Amino acid sequence: MRSRQPKQLLLAFFGEHVVDDAVGPIRASVLIGVLEGAGVAAPATRATLDRLVQTGMLDRSKSGREILFSLTEHGVAVLREATARVRGPRPFEPQGTGWTLVTFTIPEGQRTLRHRLRSTLTWEGFAPLRDGLWLAPGEVDLAGSLEPLCQDLPPKTVVAFHARELAGFPIADSVRAAWDIEAIRREHLAFIEVWGDPGAATQAASALTVRTMLVADWLALLRADPRLPREFMDAQWPAERSTQVYRRMHQRLAAASAEEFAALVSGGTGAVARNVAGAAARSVGDPVRRSRTPH
């Protein structure tokens, strides 16, 4: 597995515990404490929170001397769009048959918007094929996927269409050029190796931190696997095993992590409380720098 980045962990935290529930702003000390349990130093967490504010995913506020973070409308839309696949019954199967093709034009000066669009396409299983043409298996709900970006994308920026393979023009070589199938297999096997031990969840002090790490790894695996048709995989393809491992571990962690989260956001104590207490001392009166760059 790739190393866990602070952004992945924070999005996993907000996606699991905040986006679907009526939860108020989260104290910076809570976020710092949870990520410290995952090996992320407090300055890295603060810097990542700063960037998530800059990109419009989070809002920042203040209560007394404590810094608070909450999801913006854009952040809610992005995480809810991802939730369908994160919690879906068949996360590695294509959405229908055929192929979805996309081409887009964004001026060089709008690099942030271009990055956001490419990131969204990658999450939906697209890969660049050639000369600005992106390809994804199945019939992707592109309108839904791009909804969080619709206010920022100029009209006619994106052109998309659904296609099927024609007899005599096999697509297999193009698929293998666009995606490294063996690298995708390795991502699955790495996930299984890390999370396949049912006892792993009990080896850490904080179920909340472990669940956040699990979901961050799951998000990374979903992004790495474009949901190619089965004809491109062999009989030993590990996607089903990955799904079983994730669901088993998620269920094992659910109750304890939810209880811990509730205690932390209400100001109580939990398994992360020792980290949170130390993080609070460092974060109080030390606000994350306010962004000067508009989203």
From TrEMBL:
GO BP terms in the entry: DNA-templated transcription
Top-level lineage group: Bacteria
Annotated Transcriptional repressor PaaX-like N-terminal domain residues: 9-75
All residue ranges annotated as the Transcriptional repressor PaaX-like C-terminal domain in the record: 179-260
TM region(s), chain numbering: none
A Pfam family it matches: PaaX_M
Protein name per its UniProtKB record: PaaX family transcriptional regulator
Cited InterPro entries: PaaX-like_central, PaaX-like_N, PaaX_C, PaaX_trns_reg, WH-like_DNA-bd_sf, WH_DNA-bd_sf
Location of the Transcriptional repressor PaaX-like central Cas2-like domain: 98-140
